[in-house]
Here is the input.
Amino acid sequence: MRHSCLAIALACVAAQSVFAQDLRPESLKLYGGTYSPDCGNAAAPRVRIAADGLEIASGAHTLRTRTTMDSYTSFGAAPTSPVPEGYRVEFLGDDFSLYVFEDAKGLHVPLRDYVPAAEPIVGAKGMGLRYGRCDAR
Here is the structure.
């Protein structure tokens, strides 16, 4: 019994390592961190991209999912799928994904049209806000 528990624990650790290989450290370095419409306001809604998970939070409401991988080819896989201007990377989670774009103001994560599950957390107004990167790495 003791050996089977150890084997199960080792298998779980090995499985987590396989998932972690799909999340490139350089992607987190370039695009991870906290995004918010008002970085100086601790009460403002925020989006966080990290190795330990993706998070959308506002006040006491939080939506979290495990980060499983990043993808630079989410758009454009089919000839009818044009790549939106400024698209950089998608961080995929078990329950939702976050897309990072870049424009003249810098990196940002849009919620409207990309993360419908965020509306109960940030509200209808919050869905349309620009979530700019707060902490450069």
